[in-house]
Amino acid sequence: MVFTKREKIILVLFVILIITYFAGSYFISSLNKPQITMQNESLTQESEDAPEITIEQDDIKEKKIAIDVIGEVMKPGLVILDDGTRVIDAIEAAGGLLESADRRKINLARILKDEEQIYVPKIGENIEIEVNNDDAVEQGVTSSGKININQATAVELEKLNGIGEALASRIIQYRLEKGEFKDIKDIMKVSGIGEKKFEGMKDQITVR
């Protein structure tokens, strides 16, 4: 089949027209497509908008206790300490001991309780050791009359059979370095206290 020149021109124009139509339709449809937002972008935006939760250091406060320190210390009066501190911490907070203080009548290792009063006596002062408990006269002596080796002062420890000033000091030093005795037999871990001395004092002591 032979086309004339005019027919060829018309055919070419027709093909161009069809191509233009489909190209235009595709372009228009692409413009009308809805935008798709990625889920992770949405989550990121939500996390940015969420309020930050912070914990202020001031909100976490350690429990404090109030201790009244009187007697032979540099600055008698009320001291505020962290819960779980010991007599030695209260005395240091009160400026330390005076030269006239009787160190042997104080158990520096004892753990303090809120509202306690610590009295530091003078050397040679004839008094009983004061404590807050109404049912106790001495801090290391129990209601049964036995001496609590975890709480007793040097003076109280010297009341035990075979214990003098040197051994009493070693017992207190052991408590400071190693902690409380778990059993009365643990007192034999102190240098200078063997089975013989333990047998002589075992009915006099206790732990709690």
Question: Can you describe this structure?
Answer:
The chain is of the alpha/beta class and 208 residues long. Among the domains are: 61-129, Roll (Ubiquitin-like (UB roll)), CATH 3.10.20; 133-208, DNA polymerase, domain 1 (Orthogonal Bundle), CATH 1.10.150. The protein is built from six helices and five strands, in the order H-H-E-E-H-E-E-H-H-H-E. It has helices at 5-31, 39-49, 87-93, 154-157, 165-178, 195-201; strands at 64-71, 77-82, 117-120, 147-148, 205-206. The strands form two sheets. Strands 2-1-3 form a three-stranded mixed beta sheet, covered by helices on one side. It is rod-shaped and about 140 Å long.
CATH topology of the domain at 133-208: DNA polymerase, domain 1
Q: Judging by the overall fold, what is the CATH architecture of the domain at 133-208? A: Orthogonal Bundle
Spell the H/E element sequence.
HHEEHEEHHHE
**Beta strands, count:** 5
Class by SSE composition:
alpha/beta
N- to C-terminal distance: 121 Å
Summarize the main sheet: 3 strands, mixed
Helix content: 25-40%
**Largest sheet, order of strands side by side?**
2-1-3
For CATH, the homologous superfamily of the domain at 133-208 is named as Photosystem II 12 kDa extrinsic protein
User: pLDDT below 50 for ≥5 consecutive residues: which ranges?
Assistant: 128-137
Short description:
This protein is α/β, with parallel strands linked by helices. It has helices at residues 5-31, 39-49, 87-93, 154-157, 165-178, 195-201, and strands at residues 64-71, 77-82, 117-120, 147-148, 205-206.
